[in-house]
Amino acid sequence: MRRLCDLLSVNRSTLYYKEKPPEIDYIDLLNAIRDVWVRYPFCGYRRITKELRANGNSVNRKRVQRLMRDIKITRPNQACMVDITYLRMQNGFMYLVAFIDVYSRYVVGWSLSNTLEIDFCIDALKSGLIIAKPEIVNSDQGCQFTSEDWIDCLREYDIKISMTSKGRCKDNIYIERFWRSLSTFENISFMC
Length: 192
Fold this sequence. Notes:
alpha/beta, Nucleotidyltransferase, domain 5, 5-stranded mixed beta sheet, 7 helices, 5 strands
């Protein structure tokens, strides 16, 4: 082997090199941790690490522990969630955007529109800011919440921006629960 390596001008240590398994991407790891935690909410970081490894992920418990240190919501106005839903009307749809305080589950702002333009979302934000100013606003990645106007408005009021990952409706669970409770009224016939 030594002679072959000399002839090919290759270092012998490369013959014994074993490639490490690729590390899981940060966002993918967060999603994987959340998936395990949703199935086993009573588990700590050690058990979740074990589950992740069983699923083929190369992670250590320290990294999982660090990523699991989520923000604890301990007071009102610390974080709000925002989302849009549609209401079926006699002649089409209306769109409702609402802000909910994560701690108290209080709806601090809302707005209704017959289009999905960004203006009604900003109106709802500004009406909510009259009641309270959150430190963080969490939303999905809809075009309204990724637009420059929306982001500029949040920055103007010095509000931190948080967005859920794609396809992760459970990340915005409190506002989704609010929509579910609102859907009980969907059978009511609205007159325009």
